[in-house]
Amino acid sequence: MASNPGGGSPRTMTAEKLEHLFLTLTAAMLVVFLGALFWASFGLGMHLPDARGGTIDPTQVRTTAPFDNPGVFQVGDNEWEVVALGSAWAFQPREIRVPAGAKVTFIATATDVIHGFHVEGTKVNFMMIPGQVARIDAEFREPGEHLVICHEYCGAGHHLMYATVYVEEPDWRPEVDEPAAEEPGADTDTGTDTTPASDDPDGEGASPAAATPDAEDRA
Ligand SMILES: [Cu+2]
Q1: Whose CB among 3, 140, 202, 205 lies 3.0–4.6 Å from 176's, allowing a Cys bridge?
Q2: What is the pLDDT of residues 92-136, one digit of tens each?
């Protein structure tokens, strides 16, 4: 009965106005959401992990390189790799120490269920998925300390799952004798315990058992 061919009753006018308002609001929200998406990806540099990491047999993680030796490794002049594992309910390594301003690549996966890896106060935030290897480039500009938390609920001990990233001064390098103290075979580093060799990352102090040629710092 109350059709609205052109200017009808005041009641119809109100309905039209409201409809117009709702449509405008909806369109505006879509624009805002799309804008937020573009801002996050192009302004803040957030993106989904790409396929660089590849895949891994989730049942063989602990015997497959590089995950058979999780830790922090210097792989170039100012380049570092963090080989990280998430398992219920701990991260390996638990202490990540890198210099400020260095290029840091996280290579990570999970051994059991999905875990999250969020370095608080930074953009480093990814999922550790069984079978998938995440490979994330990062740079910590300022020295400081960041808590790493698991942000994917992974069971009863989820809230206990944390690690720490220590960002040191830009010229910081790990002391070479640290890993030697943990090696059961102490025959390779005899006599070097009191001699810091941090100025020579390629030096003879490195254990031949290390997977990478450069100095390493195990947590
Ligand atoms: Cu968790």
Answers
A1: 205
A2: 999 999 999 999 999 999 999 999 999 999 989 999 999 999 999
The C-alpha angle 70, 181, 142, rounded to 5 degrees, equals: 55
Closest CA to 204 of 216, 188, 185: 188
Give the mean model confidence (pLDDT) for residues 68-90: 93
DSSP state of 41: I
What's the 93 CA to ligand 1 centre distance in angstroms? 15
> For residues 219 and 217, what is the distance between their CA atoms, to the nearest angstrom?
7
- 42 to 38, 101, 117, 217: CA distances (angstroms): 6, 21, 22, 34
Q: Distance from the CA of 158 to the center of ligand 1, in angstroms? A: 4
Q: What does CATH list as the number for 53-172?
A: 2.60.40.420
Are 48 and 126 contacting, i.e. CB atoms less than 8 angstroms apart? no
pTM: 0.62
